[in-house]
Write a structure and sequence with these properties.
heterodimer; A: mainly alpha; 0% strand; B: mainly alpha; elongated; disordered N terminus; transmembrane helix (chain A); transmembrane (chain A); membrane (chain A); MetI-like_sf (chain A)
């Protein structure tokens, strides 16, 4: 890909992110209910004019909306995410350790889903109609039709209460992460394996497979060696819905397994109108989804240069 | 998945939705009646699923809890199909000034994570069914619109379409007469998946503690309320969990023929 195309892609991603963040910035501030009033109520103090003015100044609410946005944007880029309206602490300091937990669950779940899904999809393509094929199909159905918190709670009940294999709330970091990562992965394995299976199946029907078999390669080796690229192309083209699922799935996993991640704080911020926390969360989620989509498009282009370099939905 | 196989679920689904409808309006006990002399009792003839930590009848609460799920399904299917079809026609037949932005919106909406959208909309409208429905509609109309417009584009090349226009029928009339019958199978499959997703979303928001009215029974909110009893009284958690999972699964399997 030329440098120009790469620059164009990065620029498009940046513009989409700015648009998403700006829209949410305005929407959040249209919420009925003044944060200073809510804060005063919560603290049980009378919201006199002087106090309100002081807080509005301290929280930067006395600037115009456009000024507020640019102040916030500069802060976000320089990792100064403002002051929480509820705790009064720095949002960056508060969210950083939570972000680490959430990212561990999200990335862990995604990597696990890709590994297991690829394995399952490959086995399914190798023996169509076999056990791996039906398992991958059932997982795809389950991923669509079952609520994540239900599966999470059942897993918690089974592994922690009945079998007593894990200490999900008080064990070591790894022990606490096993079930959340497995839960996030569980809901993506099905779709990943179906995509990978489609990719390998295309190769299995290609004429060069016959040549590879005639050369003396086993079916397994031939399929893996020649179909890997096609499977990867289909996977990066179809994984977009899972990028969004990772965010929602991580939120549910955190609540089910009592992980002190981002989501717990965000649910709390919703009820207390904690703008800076909500705004940082939206910016992070948008960053993950938009750059994820563009990264997929870039990968797809690298794997198959005939495909354009922008995400199909942007073109 | 063949259509014969998914037809097998139809009676089950009808039975299920029928029970949900019935349960939403009739329960053996008052789902709110607190009885502190009879807390955490095990299942009996009087209380089919026992009672909770406040002595309320769990079976009655499960039945009453079907109501928010049913409303969400109704809202989502009605508005997604309405909005989706309208947008699909706008993409397919509107002038470029209309069709381009609508198509762009639809493609953007495809990437919206439903749960996160619901969470954020709850910040705007307050936690409740309104935020949940708005999020569902916002993220579910797009597939309808895009598949409808793709269908329109294909059908526009068909001779019978040109013939019907040549015979003098209006575009709206021709869409109604020739497009909708063709669109129905695809729309039905999407609607089934969405009905299942609506149930899951309502319950997930309730579970996160963001359902409208914590006093009113709702499956996800019940799981949220009872989850401290997961180890001591698993029945309290399993009942709403299974109700949600079964409802979502059955609906998804019945109408989704993909």
């Amino acid at each position: 890909m030329s440098w120009l195309a790469a620059m164009r892609m990065a620029f498009m991603a940046l513009v989409s992110w700015l648009a998403a963040v700006a829209v949410s910035f305005v929407l959040i501030r249209l919420i009925p209910g003044d944060p200073v009033d809510i804060f005063a109520n919560r603290m049980n103090v009378h919201a006199g004019d002087e106090l309100v003015a002081a807080y509005r100044q301290a929280w930067g609410l006395d600037h115009s909306l456009i000024e507020q946005f640019f102040i916030w944007l500069k802060g976000f880029v320089t990792l100064d995410w403002g002051v929480s309206f509820v705790t009064g602490g720095s949002v960056s300091n508060e969210l950083a350790p939570r972000l680490a937990w959430s990212a561990a669950i999200g990335f862990g779940g995604m990597i696990a889903a890709i590994c297991f899904g690829t394995f399952l999809g490959f086995r399914a393509a190798l023996h169509p109609g076999g056990m791996a094929d039906s398992l991958s199909r059932s997982m795809a159905v389950a991923g669509q039709a079952l609520p994540a918190f239900a599966v999470g709670l059942l897993a918690l009940w089974l592994f922690a209460a009945e079998l007593r294999w894990l200490l999900p709330f008080s064990g070591s970091t790894v022990e606490r992460l096993v079930l959340p990562v497995a839960l996030v992965a569980f809901f993506s394995i099905g779709s990943v394996s179906r995509l990978v299976r489609t990719g390998f199946a295309e190769t299995a029907a290609a004429p060069f497979m016959r040549t590879a078999l005639a050369k003396g390669l086993s079916r397994k080796t031939a399929l893996w060696r020649h179909g890997g690229r096609q499977a990867a192309i289909v996977l990066v083209a179809g994984i977009a819905p899972d990028l969004a699922w990772i965010v929602g799935g991580t939120a549910i996993a955190e609540i089910v397994f009592g992980i002190p991640g981002l989501s717990e704080r965000v649910v709390d911020a919703v009820s207390s109108r904690d703008y800076p926390v909500l705004q940082s969360y939206i910016a992070l989620v948008a960053l993950w989804i938009i750059f994820g989509l563009h990264l997929c498009a870039l990968l797809r282009h690298t794997l198959d240069p005939r495909i354009g370099s922008l995400p199909s939905r942007v073109q | 998945m063949t259509s014969e196989r998914s037809h097998n679920y139809l009676p089950v689904a009808l039975l299920f939705v029928g029970t949900m409808l019935l349960g939403a309006y009739w329960q053996p006990h008052n789902p709110h009646a607190v009885d502190l002399n009879n807390v955490l009792s095990t299942p009996s003839l009087e209380h089919w699923l026992g009672t909770d930590h406040l002595g309320r009848d769990v079976a009655s609460r499960i039945l009453a809890g079907a109501r928010p799920s049913l409303s969400a399904i109704a809202i989502v299917i009605a508005s997604s199909i309405g909005l989706g079809l309208a947008a699909g026609v706008a993409i397919g037949f509107g002038p470029p000034a209309l069709s381009r932005p609508v198509r762009w919106l639809a493609q953007t909406a495809l990437a919206l994570p439903t749960l996160i959208t619901a969470l954020l909309l709850a910040t705007l409208f307050g936690a409740g069914l309104l935020a949940i429905s708005a999020a569902l509609v916002a993220s579910t109309w797009a597939p309808y619109a895009l598949s409808m417009s793709a269908l329109l584009e294909r059908l526009r090349g068909e001779p019978y379409w040109l013939a019907s226009l040549a015979l003098g029928s209006s575009v709206t009339g021709a869409v109604y007469r020739h497009m909708l019958p063709n669109a129905w199978p695809a729309i039905g499959a999407l609607a089934g998946a969405d009905a299942g997703r609506a149930i899951i979303l309502v319950a997930s928001m309730g579970f996160l503690g963001l359902s409208a009215d914590t006093g009113r029974p709702e499956w996800g909110a019940m799981v949220h309320e009872y989850r401290i009893f997961l180890f001591s009284e698993p029945r309290l958690v399993l009942a709403p969990v299974l109700a949600t999972a079964m409802a979502a699964f059955v609906l998804n399997r019945t109408l989704d023929r993909s």
